[in-house]
Design brief:
Helices cover about 35% and strands about 25% of the residues. The protein has five helices and nine strands. A seven-stranded mixed β-sheet has the order 2-1-3-4-5-6-7. The longest helix is centred in the N-terminal third of the chain and has 17 residues.
């Protein structure tokens, strides 16, 4: 969200704490061991999101499809059609691209839950995704930063950009300009 690349090295204990926090957020937005979750987070290139989300989904105990966002969206659709997940997890732009490609192809996926990380869905994006997957619920499974880890998440009752703060992992404050300042307590 800062507009510039940042890097953070995690120790094994820190990484596990981040994964536990991510699992908490995924559970809070309704993901259960009964779900078949397509993990559509990009993997590699120093981006730890896929590794964290995969481990968090393992902690929940659901079935995981490690689809990633590393191939053309048409290939992603092939995988989704073949495996029929009930839950999608990705970042907002990726989820919109999947929905657009599914609409172009005429592919009807039976999606019950859409969890996203990073940038929240805009009202327009959520409306569009709801038109493509009308039986789905939409929740932010996590908002975080590479330097801090998980900061907040939505439960099934949150709406819009409302998030719970993931305590005791961080302190979140607001400055005079309305910007969020997050301080990690585990880093």
């Amino acid at each position: 969200t800062s507009g510039r690349m940042s890097f953070a090295r995690y120790g094994l204990d820190e990484f596990q704490e981040v994964c536990n926090g991510a699992a908490y957020g995924l559970k809070a937005c309704g993901i259960t061991p009964d779900d078949l979750v397509a993990n559509c987070i990009r993997a590699g290139a120093f981006w730890n999101g896929f590794l964290i989300s995969y481990r968090a989904l393992e902690i929940i105990g659901c079935n995981i499809l490690p689809i990633t966002d590393n191939q053309p969206v048409e290939r992603t659709l092939d995988y989704l059609e073949m495996m029929s997940p009930n839950t999608l997890f990705g970042i907002s732009p990726t989820l919109v691209q999947i929905a657009q490609a599914a609409t172009r192809r005429g592919l009807k996926l039976d999606i019950e839950k859409v969890a996203f990380a990073s940038t929240p869905l805009t009202t327009e994006q959520e409306s569009y995704l709801a038109s493509v997957w009308p039986n789905a619920s939409f929740h932010s499974a996590g908002y975080g930063a590479a330097e801090v880890g998980p900061i907040g998440f939505q439960c099934e009752y949150c709406t819009g950009t409302e998030h719970h703060i993931l305590q005791p992992h961080c302190i979140v404050e607001q400055d005079d300009d309305g910007s969020i300042i997050s301080t990690s307590l585990i880093r």
